[in-house]
Specification:
Layout: E1 10-15, H1 19-28, E2 37-42, H2 50-58, E3 63-69, H3 79-96, E4 104-109, H4 114-131, E5 151-153, E6 166-168
Helix pairs in contact: 1-4
Bound molecules: FE2/S2 (inorganic) cluster.
């Protein structure tokens, strides 16, 4: 990577109950994962809509992770199963417009799987490095500008730098 090249931007939509807790645990354990990872907390992956995923890619994310509870353990019963179907559909849509569906992946985690969260983040980073930058990124606002680019807020047990923080837009109240 040259000095002017930006690190891959990865957005991780994490359900509040398990995946977000795993991300927080990874931060508390001070595990290494990409500094450009942005964790977005959602109530359940069942809340994920195709438009969220497409918007993230449209805004220049190189990779998008959807992380929910283990199958059979969704706090809203089948949210993670519905999310898996949506992610599969969006992968097809993304392929149809000429992007690689590999830029998007669904994972299932328990709240104790901090180590696995770190592995997933690194796996996605390696994957998007292999794929190269999102071609839509050139036209997208720079990270830090809007929606995808949000300011990481450190939560108790988390570390500064956005590894485990809830995100929100600059200036937005918690
Ligand atoms: Fe975690 Fe539904 S509450 S995926």
């Amino acid at each position: 990577m040259s000095g002017t090249e930006r690190p891959p931007l990865i957005v991780a939509f994490c359900c509040h109950y398990c995946a977000y807790a795993a991300a927080d645990l990874a931060g508390a354990m001070r595990l290494q994962y990409p500094p450009s990872l942005r964790v977005v907390k959602i109530p359940c992956t069942g809340k994920i809509d195709a438009s969220y995923l497409l918007r993230a890619l449209e805004r220049g994310a190189d990779g998008v992770i959807v992380a929910g509870c283990l199958e059979g353990q969704c706090h809203f019963l089948e949210g993670n199963l519905r999310a898996r179907e949506r992610v599969a559909r969006v992968k097809e849509m993304v392929e149809a417009i000429g992007l690689s569906g590999e830029r998007l992946e669904m994972y299932n985690l328990s709240s104790a799987m901090g180590q696995r969260f770190g592995e997933i983040a690194r796996e996605m980073e390696e994957r998007v490095k292999r794929l190269g930058p999102n071609p839509l990124r050139r036209a997208a606002p720079a990270p830090g500008a809007e929606a995808v680019a949000t300011t990481p807020i450190t939560t108790p047990g988390g570390t500064p730098g956005g590894t485990s923080g809830e995100t929100r837009k600059p200036g937005e109240k918690p």
